[in-house]
Amino acid sequence: xxxxxxxxxxxxxxxxxxxxxxxxxxxxxxxxxxxxxxxxxxxxxxxxxxxxxxxxxxxxxxxxxxxxxxxxxxxxxxxxxxxxxxxxxxxxxxxxxxxxxxxxxxxxxxxxxxxxxxxxxxxxxxxxxxxxxxxxxxxxxxxxxxxxxxxxxxxxxxxxxxxxxxxxxxxxxxxxxxxxxxxxxxxxxxxxxxxxxxxxxxxxxxxxxxxxxxxxxxxxxxxxxxxxxxxxxxxxxxxxxxxxxxxxxxxxxxxxxxxxxxxxxxxxxxxxxxxxxxxxxxxxxxxxxxxxxxxxxxxxxxxxxxxxxxxxxxxxxxxxxxxxxxxxxxxxxxxxxxxxxxxxxxxxxxxxxxxxxxxxxxxxxxxxxxxxxxxxxxxxxxxxxxxxxxxxxxxxxxxxxxxxxxxxxxxxxxxxxxxxxxxxxxxxxxxxxxxxxxxxxxxxxxxxxxxxxxxxxxxxxxxxxxxxx
Length: 469
Hints:
The protein is an alpha/beta fold. It contains 17 helices and 22 strands.
């Protein structure tokens, strides 16, 4: 749909308006503090003041705090406000906004899903897109978005789609300011978004205080983008320091090294994946509370299915498995024949209703007593190296006997040659690898590191280990 231009309101009737702005999150709304709204409006109009006939868009306006921020800014500067458009899918929130802006002819409010609508292009775009993970969307929504958006890949988040739609709604001379999680800078899922953003001039990336949204761990970042032109990118770190990047990577590769003041080295040698059979996160049962139990409490009839297992929290204390995982699979990763599962199914039948409620079973992909995914037991039950998926500092341990089954909160690394297991361990725990991982890993709550198989696979290794293969 197209939006008709409205008229500017009378400045004499303008008063200072205070409010909160909402961003959608599964389970409710979270409010952006007014000082952050004011900061973002300053960034929006930093290069040029808006004119009466200019257009400003807030694509997820909630109760209208960014709209009010723009109006207040114009009042302080003593200039006429531009035409402002707010789009909001939540009719209740939009109702609050309508009460605030009643009688202001230059403010247009639309009750619609910004991602699905057809709108004009804008001179200025500002906002706090909704942060809704893939799990918060219905199957039909996921399918619709995947067809419509280049950034709707893998486990996408709605804020990524808002970025894409907003950038395509920005005039060539326009300017956009969004506050989102910093994750777009380095995750594999956001590679298409980085490629898209690099077509524009990313003028500034401002990492703001982690406690802006109180209990939510989003590592908030204010991004300022110009619709056209080329130029350097200023990065403001949370400690107040800043750097200037001459040119951000345009191929979708991670920006994290450039943002931290380094440069992505050209890969000249082998990497960890070259000498490993598998680098993966551990077994996902979909119901650890059922399939995992203390070693001492295993009934005699279930002992043939019991394998020592360890999770991330336990791994902190070293490789000491006090629990077992009851596994209905053979060494090749296939479900055991029915005749060998009689005792297993008899004991687990009391959990059948709970296990059948799992997504993997409801979709018809698995039997009620199977795991969320088939475990590659032939690789798991080998000598290997283990590490936590989330840790304050990266650290690695060995399972030299190869009898421990790592759970989904543990990554396991299986070298092709078990003789280099301890050499691997020393190298992975070295300061060199520590620095390499710190520069590339995502962050989790409380500044912990999130290790991923894609990062682990790319760890550079000495050539001598490849020569031994």
